[in-house]
Amino acid sequence: MWRKRIIQLATVFSVTAVLPLIAVAKAGVLFKREGAFVACGQLLSLVPGRIGVFFRRGFYMFTLRRFSANAHIDFGSYFSKSGAAVGDRVWIGGNSVVGYATIGDDSVIGSRVSVISGKRQHNFADPRRKILDGTGEYSCVTIGENVFVGEQSLVMADVGSKSIVGAGSVVVKAIPAFSVAVGNPARVIKSRYPLSVIRPKERQRGRHQKYGRSLLQY
Ligand SMILES: CC(C)(COP(=O)(O)OP(=O)(O)OC[C@H]1O[C@@H](n2cnc3c(N)ncnc32)[C@H](O)[C@@H]1OP(=O)(O)O)[C@@H](O)C(=O)NCCC(=O)NCCS
């Protein structure tokens, strides 16, 4: 009870403290200039300890599409797109950068992870064009609920709910739900689908072995 009250008070204090930055970021986004939003986020990413977590939470609660009041974003981490959305109890480790993405409830993003806004931010179709000519597209990467993304991974495609992405992996194609995927490019090596949920007929036909190794390992 007291703990909850203290957290609420700390949240109110943090929001008040970062109000000028919220105003600057909001004004920038209004005029379609995300630079101010990114710069304010980068500044707050440098505040250490618990106070930094509260400051970043207070800032992103009012500047992102959604940032849950109980989500955590650690030292050195920031968002590069205000269109990102972060669910309840999400944990984002240190020195990570998240672009245009939706992160489902209870997911954990490790340290030094990059979640980029799809793979087509730059248009490589015509070699005569300049890379930075602004004709690329930013697509929303969806990370499901209760997903774990390991340290130093790079995510540029969707990750299904309840999946694990191993440390140092590069996700270039969508990872189905209940998978363990590792490597560059990330490939599914195991399924986490609970055996009790698989119907006996499917088990006989081996359909549960759809993704890589046998589910019977779990
Ligand atoms: C993905 C992970 C959970 C797999 O653990 P596991 O189920 O015990 O898997 P195993 O150790 O049995 O490995 C299975 C295979 O995948 C490979 N593998 C495991 N993790 C890998 C990774 N991150 N990248 C590439 N290959 C990996 C193993 O070498 C092994 O290959 P092999 O069968 O050819 O020998 C674990 O390796 C991992 O990456 N954990 C994340 C740790 C982390 O980021 N912590 C951050 C703290 S916030």
What would you note in describing this structure?
There is one protein chain. The protein has a 7-stranded mixed beta sheet with strand order 2-5-8-11-13-15-16. The protein has a 5-stranded parallel beta sheet with strand order 3-6-9-12-14. It contains 5 helices and 16 strands. 28% of the residues lie in helices and 18% in strands. The protein has 2 domains: 1-63, no CATH class; 67-213, Hexapeptide repeat proteins (UDP N-Acetylglucosamine Acyltransferase, domain 1), CATH 2.160.10.10. Mean pLDDT is 89; it is low at 206-218. A hairpin with a 4-residue loop joins strand 15 (179-182) and strand 16 (187-191). With 218 residues, the chain is α/β, with parallel strands linked by helices. Helix 2 (19-30) runs antiparallel to helix 3 (35-45). It binds coenzyme A.
Could you give a quick summary of the protein structure above?
This protein has helices spanning 2-17, 19-30, 35-45, 49-63, 200-205; strands at residues 66-67, 72-73, 78-79, 85-86, 91-92, 97-98, 101-103, 108-109, 114-115, 141-143, 148-149, 154-155, 164-165, 170-171, 179-182, 187-191. The chain is α/β, with parallel strands linked by helices and 218 residues long.
Order of helices and strands: HHHHEEEEEEEEEEEEEEEEH
> Which fold name fills CATH's third level, the topology of the largest domain?
UDP N-Acetylglucosamine Acyltransferase, domain 1
Oligomer: single chain
Overall body shape: flat
Radius of gyration: 19 Å
The CATH superfamily name of the largest domain is Hexapeptide repeat proteins
β-strand number: 16
Name of the CATH class of the largest domain = Mainly Beta
